[in-house]
Amino acid sequence: MSENIPQKKRPMKAKEIQELIDYISNSGLAEVKIKTEEFELSIKKYADPGQVRMVESAPAVMHATAPASAPHIPAPVAVQPPVVIPSNLLEIKSPMIGTFYLTPNPDSPNFVTEGDAIKAGQTVCIIEAMKLFNEIESEISGKIVKILVSNASPVEYDQPLFLVDPAG
What we know:
Blueprint: H1 14-27, E1 31-35, E2 40-45, E3 52-56, E4 90-93, E5 98-101, E6 117-118, E7 123-129, E8 132-137, E9 142-147, E10 153-155, E11 160-165
Antiparallel strand pairs: 1-2, 2-3, 4-11, 5-7, 5-10, 6-9, 7-8, 9-11
């Protein structure tokens, strides 16, 4: 006889959500609905095959580090002009679509500012996606040369957020 041991629930990570969206986008399906104990997700493709709209139907599980008072500012995602990047600089890009925040909450200082030295694994910002506040960690070490996005602005998947000088 086996024991029924409750397992600790873990929220979906931002990368897992983005991989799921990418998989569905490439699958040829027009609409997908997923329902678990933690959340319900509906993804529907529109006329433009590159455009995917996410609609949340039920509350999602938040990370323990989620800022409780971060403002939710709905705004259309604007297409950003391409940024010319000097060859010696590297980009930290958004791993998902969402709202970019430089602080964990409105009363806290920025995670990073221009001129700061950062290390790989250091949190540089938060991106809110579907009511989940996801800490974005740098994959590189160096010095923040430029912050390319304003606080509380919408961002696209793979959009450059920071320019980093790895020699800094």
